[in-house]
Amino acid sequence: MNLNFFFRSPGQESQKIFKAANPMDSNQTKTKLLGYGFSILESVDPNPDNFVSAGIIHTRSAQIGCLLRLEPNLQAHVSFAQIKRRRKYGSFLNIFFASRCTA
Question: Which domains are present in the chain?
């Protein structure tokens, strides 16, 4: 199974396009993802500008295993985030990533 198969397979997923308040910096984005407890999966996506991460989001009521693909468009200052998870927490994840990745 490769990354594209995983992201095309049916399951619990959310997709969000959001505009960044500031130009996206690769090192800052990596630092944010690592700070949220995600691991950066290097050399998984054929586009080196994209980020693929895996992690578990811990809340008071649940632990949510997630796989994230973040595709920044540096020229337009927008990003596309695709999140696959093991449980149904789509609106929570959309809010979580939109509020943290656009800052």
Answer: 3-101 (3.30.310.10)
